[in-house]
Design a protein that fits this description.
By secondary structure, the chain is α+β, with helices and mostly antiparallel strands. 41% of the residues lie in helices and 19% in strands. The longest helix is centred in the N-terminal third of the chain and has 38 residues. Bound molecules: 3,4-dihydroxyphenylalanine.
Length: 344
Amino acid sequence: MKAQIENVKQAALAAVAAAGTVQELGEVRVRFLGKSGELTSLMKGLGALSKEERPEMGKVLNLARTEIETALEQKLAAAEEREKQARLSAEAVDVTLPGRKPVRGTLHPITQVREDIVRVFLGMGFEVAEGPEIESDLYNFQLLNVPKDHPARDMQDTFYVNDSFVLRTHTSPMQARMMTTRKPPIRVVIPGRVYRSDDDASHSPIFHQIEGLAVDKYITMGDLEGCLTAFAQQMFSKDTEIRLRPSYFPFTEPSVEVDVTCAICGGKGCRVCKGTGWVEILGAGIVNPAVLEMCGIDSKEYSGFAFGLGLERIAMIKYGIPNIKLFYENDVRFLKQFNGEVEK
Ligand code: DAH
């Protein structure tokens, strides 16, 4: 039995010496000292020995056990330390490395242009309002002097919700909403989304407009021109000029279309302005007295001017963007080019 114990002990010590990792040492412990380990089995065999032999063999066994345990403990402490160091150096963080910059989002170019335009008009004493995108036929057309079955309805391809409601085709219905609910003086700009059944490189079924309305005593075409000149010069550049061309809108009389000197070529003529030096930016006019009256404002006492412009169109002119669809694809390579203030 003694020789057996010695053999097991030697085998155990050899196994300890050969084990390198915490895990291997654990396995050695189970193999020799575990519940059915090799040394444990020998201990179980003590009962079969004679009374005389038993204490002596017990002692030898205990000594062997202690020796194996000591060897295990020593190796284990070293292995644990080694593995801890390895883990620490693997997980080490170089605090001197420069940080990774978070990617910053940017305001959409349409949002930037809207904010720029609104800021210019706030500076001239206008307030800002918003209105519904599902609009009644009454406000979208009738109060703007476009009765049912009027040919001017064809100027805007309309999405009908039902017989009496449409997706607003322009922000102009907000003129009627302001005039029917306010008393002059009124000075307001109304940004918003509008809808038309129209789709090509410069038209989208959903796009954005800003409406402007000023109603007061003695408002003239001169006020409109002065106001829009100030706007164009702040929006594009100090030496931008505007020109008014006669046009037709049912809700203004007289009506004009307004051009600005081309922001890309400065008026010399280029691809954007098709060689003319001018680009059309908006429709405007003197509020039709019939509209004032329908909205409950005395046209003998008051007059007004109104204008409406497309935000996409302004952004396309300002940045030389060839296709309106680029605004809606939200490709970050496009969007991140507008990562600052719009240059003045
Ligand atoms: N609502 C017109 C459109 O969508 C634009 C417009 C023209 C607005 C003349 C106005 C205006 O306020 O006076 O085409």
